[in-house]
Amino acid sequence: DAKKLVRSPSGLRMVPEHRAARSPFGLDEPPWVPDKECPRCMQCDTKFDFITRKHHCRRCGKCFCDKCCSKKVPLPRMCFVDPVRQCAECALISQKETEFYDKQLKVLMNGATFFVTLGTSDKSELMVCRLSNNQRYLVLDGDSHYEIEVMQISTVQILTEGFTPGGGNTRAIGMILQYKVPGSEEVMQMKFTAGEDFSCNRKLSASWLAAMHKVSK
Question: For the chain, which ranges sit under pLDDT 70?
């Protein structure tokens, strides 16, 4: 998973040397709206001139005045090294995604322990489940070993308990995962259940499941 530093009109990016190693959460840089097609700000309709300069949002590629495109926000989904200029709408989205990258993906990569049941089997296996460092695979390790490509996951159903008529909060206790086998149309299913004993750390498992739920969205 070697990476290389590349320069684009939008800024410096640290990207995988091979496209196949890209994170499934990554985004391609958008094409910029050509200057000749943009005589006015695409947000406030201010006319561009020698004083009012044009700026392109690095996330959507649209053309704005400085007032409407002044924020510089991290954009990890495009692998930018430094924060880049974005319009107000895109900046808000990127800020939320940065929190996802900084918190949820780290939780998933750190992993948690579950009892894993394959298909319709009545036997389960205690396994450590984590997201690979390149974010491309869900890795399960126990007596058996599985690697599920994230892009092949079709359904994530989080199992919960604890709801009460009085409005009590639910907590995540497991997950049903469906995914396609590479090179086949066959769909496999796995069930993940948090262990009851303290050694499995139910709180950690619940955090991992919550992060997985956000990933699926």
Answer: 1, 162-169, 196-201
Helix, strand, coil percentages, rounded to 5, for the chain: 25, 35, 40
- What values do phi and psi take at 142, rounded to 5? -160, -140
Q: Which CATH superfamily is domain 3-104 in?
A: Zinc/RING finger domain, C3HC4 (zinc finger) (3.30.40.10)
- Separation of alpha carbons 139 and 212, rounded Å: 13
What's the fold here for domain 111-216? PH-domain like (2.30.29)
Which residues contact residue 122 at a Cβ distance below 8 angstroms, ignoring those fewer than 6 apart?
Answer: none
pLDDT digits (tens, 9 = 90+) for 3-45: 899 998 889 999 888 877 788 888 999 999 999 999 999 999 9
